[in-house]
Amino acid sequence: MLRAGLGVRMLATAARPHRLRMLLMGCPGSGKGTLSARIEQKYGVPIITAGDLLRWHTTHGTELGREAAEVIRSGKLMPDKTMMSLVGQKLDEMGDSDWILDGFPRTSGQATLLNDMLHREHRPLSLVVNLCVPEEVILQRVLDRWTHIPNLSYNPPKTPGIDDITGEPLEKREDDNPETFRKRIESFHAKTEPMINYFRTLRAPSDPSQPLLVDLAGRTSNEIWPKLQHTIESRFDYHRTSS
């Protein structure tokens, strides 16, 4: 749900008036998880995962969890109001801390609800990053993906076909095939392009001359990472480091 960051390298809070409240967006397989983890490790910024929040509430039987469980049992889509309540509660707990929000919002309607709520609380979003990775690169990455390891091309197992951690045979996920991937990409564009266009109309709260949304292009996470570092460090006064 929220993972504590390691290796934090930031200036004192008093010297950092602008908080990093960030969304990281991109197609399935574009490297959002990898890059979020790098931000968490390097800067100590915690990741709030919408899916983990939903699972926690349903597992613990909270009022929101029971409401969500009923929707899941009915086979309906989770209402924006329910997801907004789950996410809003966690963001309230975070107070004035930095954070990365993963898995929410997914539509322009959810984006508007989130942005309005954060502005009412005087804790507006300060950065939205849109990862622009060629679809043919993502397709190969997805086809390489096996359970328990991020990617065969970038992190192959020590023993082919065997999980390094569990010793179990590796199996491809059922949804890792070209047809399913292309459907996921089509669904992604249909749902998120209006949301991305919405964020393009907004300005950074700390400097209205800067856009809230930044496009970062590259073929790999290693290629995008230096650009992401520069964006974060130039806007939020983190210490510059070479790692």
TrEMBL record:
One Pfam family of this chain: ADK_lid
Sequence ranges assigned to domain Adenylate kinase active site lid in this UniProt record: 151-175
InterPro entries: Adenyl_kin_sub, Adenylat/UMP-CMP_kin, Adenylat_kinase_CS, Adenylate_kinase_lid-dom, ADK_active_lid_dom_sf, P-loop_NTPase
Coiled coil region boundaries: none
Keywords linked to the UniProt accession: Kinase, Nucleotide-binding, Transferase
GO MF terms held by the record: AMP kinase activity; ATP binding
Top-level taxon: Eukaryota
Annotated region (Disordered), positions in chain: 157-176
Family: Belongs to the adenylate kinase family.
The protein, known as: Adenylate kinase active site lid domain-containing protein
